[in-house]
Every structure is written in C-alpha cells, then in structure tokens.
C-alpha cells in the first residue's frame, strides 16, 4: 500500500528545493535499515544508518547556518519533522564539536575507558593513525583533524 501523503503538514516555502535531497537520503536510510546484516558485526550494521543521519543533519545545518539558503521557518520545520537531529546540531555550534559524528560518541557511559570515544581524540594525540569507532564507524571527528 502506498503511503498517503498527509495534507495536515504545511510545507514552508523553499521545501521543494531541499525535498529531493532529503527524499534521497531517506531512501538510502530505508535501504540501510533493510539490509540483511549477515557476516557483519552487529554494531557495524548500524554504521550506515548513523552516517546517513549525520548527512541529513549536516545538509540542513549547512543550508541554514553556513550557506544561508533556507529560511528560519524551513529550518525549524526540518528539525520539527526530524529531518535533522536537533541535539546533534546543537553540539555542532559548540567549539570543539563542529565535526562531531553522532551523540553516542560523547556519552561517557557508552565507553569502556574514560569519557569520550576514540574518534573524538585528535589524530596527533592517539597512537593508532587509522581508527573506526565501534559506535558509528567514525574515523575521527575531533575539530582540527
Ligand atoms: Zn566520531
Ligand atoms: Zn566514535
């Protein structure tokens, strides 16, 4: 059954410009979610999903905060409709978190050692040069890397 587009949602002006990109990312997300995970470690199966989440939020964030191509109304609409992750974007505005990959990587309880995920450690401070964190497969997201 095709999903019926609800007419209750009122799309702000400019929506038609960003809709194709968002739809494309949503489709990719669905694909990643339905992907049979055979052979992959359980955590690895989630990586593409985190990555696409990140991409969507980054897209909206850049359009509004950097490129200033969308209105505040449209920006807030995207946050409300969860096309972008409000909490993640809030972090990107803080110094040192501009490139943060996902919220899990800064939650102390999720880590065996200390307070942050390996991917948050700047390249020049860590022993291994190439890493992939277990949470989202991030290869390093410290500011300045
Ligand atoms: Zn990271
Ligand atoms: Zn991480």
TrEMBL record:
Top-level taxonomic group: Eukaryota
Subcellular location(s) per record: Nucleus
Pfam families in the cross-refs: BUD31
One of the record's GO cellular component terms: spliceosomal complex
Keywords: Nucleus
GO process annotations (BP): mRNA splicing, via spliceosome
Leader peptide range in chain numbering: none
Family: Belongs to the BUD31 (G10) family.
PANTHER family to which the protein is assigned, alphabetical: PROTEIN BUD31 HOMOLOG, PROTEIN BUD31-RELATED
Name the record gives this protein: Uncharacterized protein
Lineage of the species this protein comes from: Eukaryota, Viridiplantae, Streptophyta, Embryophyta, Tracheophyta
């Amino acid at each position: 059954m095709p999903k019926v587009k609800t007419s209750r949602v009122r799309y702000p002006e400019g929506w038609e410009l960003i809709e194709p990109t968002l739809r494309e990312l949503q489709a990719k997300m669905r694909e990643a979610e339905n992907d049979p995970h055979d052979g992959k470690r359980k955590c690895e199966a989630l990586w593409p999903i985190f990555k696409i989440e990140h991409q969507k939020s980054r897209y909206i964030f850049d359009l509004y905060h950097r490129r200033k191509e969308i209105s505040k109304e449209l920006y807030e609409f995207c946050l409300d409709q969860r096309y972008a992750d409000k909490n993640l974007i809030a972090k990107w505005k803080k110094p040192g978190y501009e490139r943060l990959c996902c919220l899990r990587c800064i939650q102390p309880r999720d880590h065996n050692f200390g307070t942050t995920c390996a991917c948050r450690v700047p390249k020049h401070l860590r022993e291994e040069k190439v890493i992939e964190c277990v949470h989202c497969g991030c290869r390093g997201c410290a500011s300045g890397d």
